[in-house]
Design goal:
The structure holds three protein chains of three kinds. Chain A is of the alpha+beta class. Chain A has helices at residues 92-105, 132-146, 173-178, 204-234, and strands at 8-9, 12-13, 25-29, 37-43, 46-57, 70-77, 117-127, 156-163, 166-169, 181-187, 193-196, 199-200. Chain A has one domain: Ribosomal Protein S5, domain 2 (2-Layer Sandwich). Chain A contains four helices and twelve strands. In chain A, the strands form three sheets. A five-stranded mixed sheet of chain A has the order 3-4-5-7-6. In chain A, a hairpin with a 5-residue loop joins strand 10 and strand 11 (193-196). The radius of gyration of chain B is 22 Å and the shape is flat. Chain C has a single domain, classed as Ribosomal Protein S5, domain 2. In chain C, strands 1, 2, 3, 4, 5 and 6 form a six-stranded mixed sheet that branches. Chain C is built from five helices and twelve strands. In chain C, helix 2 (102-117) packs across helix 3. Chain C is α+β, with helices and mostly antiparallel strands. Chain C is elongated. The chains are: A alpha+beta, B alpha+beta, C alpha+beta. The interface between A and B is large, with 51 and 46 residues.
């Protein structure tokens, strides 16, 4: 695909969104049987699934921490998730994404409750469409809650970027490919930033404005995450769910 | 309402003195630390809807031997931490070389958590007359956090289950449950326990279980060559109730089956 | 219901074994009965073909990617099939990260064998320029949830994905897109032997107890395209003959129900 002449026309993006609008999001909680917690997350054309196992025994043993759990995060893309088939297995990109995603979630996990154990987070990208790492973090955060892992809060993530000299929320594939900047962030509901990456070109002012825009995106996602968790239990029986 | 479904980080109260399990305190406020059911009546606590068993001294559990080492049996207790049963905690004096003759890999035991140290080394014992190796019966598993609901207020739920199903039921704090009884009775008890596990967060559980057991036993009675007398004395009221129950179950089945269907959006 | 422990309680093994003697299975199925099967195709728009299969609690997604490549020197006018399967740690507490090990490789090769040997894909029609350029068909099986019998789910998903797959000619300036030329629809049926009884479509627990699995892949004509005995326990000739007979019948049934377009 070649670069479209314009990515924004009359304030509207190629996919019909306004600059500060998120792509459609669909969330399902508890989709896997074997995992202790799981979540399927669709974010525009991204389709990711997250599973949490643990706390459980640590293998290999030398990774154990005597006073807290070790959190491990594996981000992986299915070979068929992208236009050009991807070779299976980890690469430098997926290793970096795994690291920063883990660090985005660790601050909210009460790791000290489970010494000598492991909390394993697995994120599989089944279809990629710009923003897979943020989709993965959103899914993983829900899967952690679904697994019963004690946390300070959920974590929400989305990206902001610059296309045609305009700041836009949640880049799509074309905007990601041909835009001028991309900045994924993750955030707790009380506004603490747990992931921040940026590449491209932004002025200091644009960065600050962009960060606020991304934060508003995270707040909106946070509400959807909560609704999805509540949905898992309230959908089982109508009426008065709780005693 | 003094109970509600909460997610991690949800604000619960300003009264930090009442903060209990499943919560944390920050800046003078109480928040939920887990996804679960919060009760705010006296103590503020949140019972998680899922999660692993974390052993505490005094817990009675059901374990499965995974390894026989020189002087310990290593026991799976459905926890991030394995249980250790030292040879000296076996009720009789035995030789190290004979350990696997008494308890071998795959064997199940009812055990007591004797001690848990700060590094989560878990020591088990069989030195208690309530404890023994499990030689017969059926073992099923439920979410450990749902064990209190299964037992019920001062044991009311489990007492009813035992009574109605004629099974002997041992509930391990680790969510492993040992049932012994006749096959038909066991089937019913298993069904009932799994229903409790599924619906523990929905109000009116006790009434629903009473009704469920009555209905299920009614069904059993209807099977051919079985207790013809019961069939005859069935009142219209019973039949009506059964109908409702069947319909109710259908609705539930449809709903619970739906979660996976939406995965990948079905290509829509 | 599966117990969480990696090690299975002897008590639970006995329970399943005793049920088997009475002619019953833990989940109430007949010995020759499959768990509920659901197949949805075109679930991954980025792939040239895709299918999601749910076989009871087992859940796999298969994506087919197709792109031009160089043929093998000994088959210069034939397309290429490459099948890959990974037991990713998301799908089971016992699967580990890292390159595929023998179980995953065995599964991938048996799926591949069924498709290749049944002649499911007309490879001669995948030739663009003999000796230079042919279509390479990558079948990638992604296991999401292991509830037992990944084999049959993977095979079903692979052929279902191929049936809907397109050669992306337009994208590579090689003319118009067209369907992958499919000539046959192989179906894999897996049986286990427990204490002398034969059961189809083993659940996770049955698989744990069973000494041996036998997978029988048959084509539309009811002929065999591939077989694999997996596991250390030997099978008798009678057992094998019996499995082959019911597998061919069962394959017909599944093909008719899920794969006829």
């Amino acid at each position: 695909m070649s670069k479209p002449e314009k990515l924004i026309e009359n304030g509207i993006r190629l996919d019909g969104r306004k600059p500060d609008e998120l792509r459609p999001i669909k969330i399902k909680v508890g989709v896997l049987n074997r995992a202790d917690g799981s979540c399927y997350f669709e974010f525009g054309g991204n389709k990711v699934i997250a599973a949490v196992y643990g706390p459980r025994e640590v293998h290999p043993r030398h990774q154990q921490k005597s006073t807290s759990a070790v959190v491990r995060y594996r981000y992986n893309m299915a070979s068929f998730s992208v236009e050009e088939r991807k070779r299976p297995g980890p690469d430098r990109r997926s290793i970096e994404v795994s690291k920063v995603s883990r660090e985005a979630l660790e601050p909210v996990i009460f790791e000290e409750y489970f010494p000598r154990s492991a909390i394993d987070i697995f994120v599989e990208v089944l279809q990629a469409d710009a923003g897979t790492r943020t989709a993965g973090i959103n899914a993983a955060s829900i899967a952690l809650a679904d697994a019963g892992i004690p946390m300070k809060s959920l974590v929400s993530a989305c990206a902001v970027g610059k296309v045609d000299d305009t700041l836009v929320l949640d880049l799509n594939k074309d905007e990601d490919n041909y835009g001028q900047a991309d900045m994924p962030i993750a955030m707790t509901p009380d506004g603490k930033i747990t992931l921040l990456q940026m590449d491209g070109h932004l002025t200091n002012e644009e960065f600050k404005e962009g960060l606020e825009m991304a934060k508003r995106g995270c707040v909106a996602i946070s509400e959807m995450q909560k609704a999805a968790l509540v949905e898992k239990y309230s959908s089982q029986v109508e009426g008065d769910v709780l005693e | 309402m003094d109970k509600k479904l909460v997610i991690p980080g949800e604000f619960l109260s300003d009264d930090i003195n009442r903060a209990d399990e499943g919560t944390y305190v920050e800046d003078g406020k109480v928040y939920s630390s887990v996804f679960g059911i919060a009760s705010l009546k006296n103590r503020i606590k949140v019972v998680s809807l899922s999660g692993k068993y974390i052993p505490r001294p005094g817990d009675m559990i059901v374990g499965i031997i995974t390894e026989v080492s020189f002087s310990n049996w290593i026991v799976d207790i459905r926890s991030p931490y394995e249980g250790l049963l030292h040879i000296s905690e076996f009720p009789r004096r035995i030789e190290n070389t004979d350990m696997s003759k008494y308890l071998n890999v795959g064997d199940s035991i009812m055990a007591l958590v004797a001690d848990v140290d700060p590094t989560m080394k878990v020591e088990l014992t069989l030195n208690d007359q309530r404890l023994r190796q499990i030689k017969e019966g059926r073992i099923i598993e439920v979410t450990p956090s749902k064990v209190p609901r299964l037992i019920g207020r001062s044991g009311s739920m489990i007492a009813m289950l035992k009574n109605e199903t004629r099974c002997s039921i041992f509930v391990g704090q680790n969510g492993r449950i040992l049932l012994t009884g006749k096959d038909k009775d066991l089937d019913l008890a298993v069904k009932a326990i799994l229903k409790i596990e599924r619906e523990s967060h929905i109000s009116g559980l006790t009434d629903r279980m009473t009704r469920f057991l009555k209905e299920e036993k009614g069904k059993q009675g209807k099977e051919p060559e079985k207790e013809v007398e019961k069939e005859e004395i069935k009142t219209e009221e019973h039949i009506e109730e059964e109908k409702i129950a069947v319909e109710h179950e259908k609705v539930e089945e449809e709903k619970s089956g739906g979660i996976l269907d939406e995965l990948l959006g079905n290509g829509k | 219901m599966s117990l969480s422990s990696e090690i299975m309680a002897e008590l639970h093994k006995d329970y399943i074994y005793n049920l088997m003697i009475k002619g019953e299975r833990e989940d109430g199925r007949a010995f020759d009965q499959y768990r509920e099967i659901q197949i949805d195709t075109n679930v991954i728009e980025k792939a040239e073909g895709s299918a999601r299969v749910k076989l009871g609690d087992t859940h796999v997604v298969v994506g087919v990617k197709i792109q031009p490549g160089t043929p093998f020197p000994d088959t210069p006018d034939q397309g290429v099939i490459i099948t890959n399967l990974e037991l990713i740690p998301l799908a089971s507490p016992v699967f580990e990260s890292g390159p595929p090990r023998e179980d995953a490789i065995e599964l991938a090769r048996v799926v591949d064998r069924g498709i290749r040997e049944s002649g499911a894909i007309d490879l001669s029609k995948l030739c663009v320029t003999a000796g230079e350029k042919v279509w390479m068909v990558f079948i990638d099986v992604h296991v999401l949830d292991d509830g037992g019998n990944i084999m049959d789910a993977a095979a079903l998903g692979s052929i279902a994905a191929l049936l809907t797959a397109k050669l992306p000619a337009k994208r590579f300036d090689l003319g118009e897109d067209s369907p992958v030329p499919i000539r046959d629809v192989p179906v894999a049926i897996t049986a286990v032997e427990i204490g002398g009884s034969i059961m189809l479509d083993p659940s996770l627990n049955e698989q744990r107890i069973a000494g041996t699995k036998l997978t029988v892949i048959s084509n539309q004509k009811g002929a065999l395209s591939g077989m694999q005995k997996s596991g250390v326990h030997p099978l008798t000739t009678e057992q094998i003959n019996y499995i082959v007979d019911i597998a061919i019948e069962k394959a017909k049934e599944l093909r008719q129900k899920f794969l006829e377009i």
